[in-house]
Amino acid sequence: MPIAALLALIIAAFPTPQGASAHTRLISSTPEVGVTLNTWPTQVKLEFDQALVDIGQEKSNFVVVNNSLGDQVSQDDEVINENVISVSLTPNEVKGPVLVFYRVVSADGHPVEGEFAFNFSEEQSAEVDSINQEPTTDFPLTIYIASAAFIASGIFFAIYSYRRRNLG
């Protein structure tokens, strides 16, 4: 029974991965995702389903807005109020799709990044629809699966080596 005790000790030493808690997600924005505006907005406001927090002294929450030429039109003055982050925009005359990129840290401590687009012109742009996506998460499930497979193979190798050495 020493092998069973050794195996139990090894398994107990590695905690099993817990299911990922729900990270914050974007629930609304002003301007709205995919909308076409005829008038340039003065700010972009994003609302999330969890409160946002600042971590450390570095800027952990930010919003960057680029016009269709790739020029940054957002200022560096983000304001966080509970679950809403807003940023002021500089004047812009360039028509076309406008990309909004954000990175926020929610109350659960996990950073979430995402992007969406709206259009600044008289016509709806097909480019805006292709740019809009769901936010990306920060830690994919495949890492948990690969880690579990690596640990399991190490355990089986240890048992195989022990048996081969001691049982001859």
TrEMBL record:
Gene3D superfamilies: 2.60.40.1220. GO terms for biological process: copper ion transport; response to copper ion. Keywords: Copper, Membrane, Metal-binding, Signal, Transmembrane, Transmembrane helix. Residues 23-119 form the CopC domain. GO terms for cellular component: cell envelope; periplasmic space; plasma membrane. Its main location: other. GO terms for molecular function: copper ion binding. It is found in: Cell envelope. The chain crosses the membrane at residues 141-162. Pfam families: CopC. The keyword 4Fe-4S does not apply. InterPro entries: CopC/D, CopC_dom, Cu-Rt/internalin_Ig-like, Ig_E-set. This is Unannotated protein. It comes from freshwater metagenome.
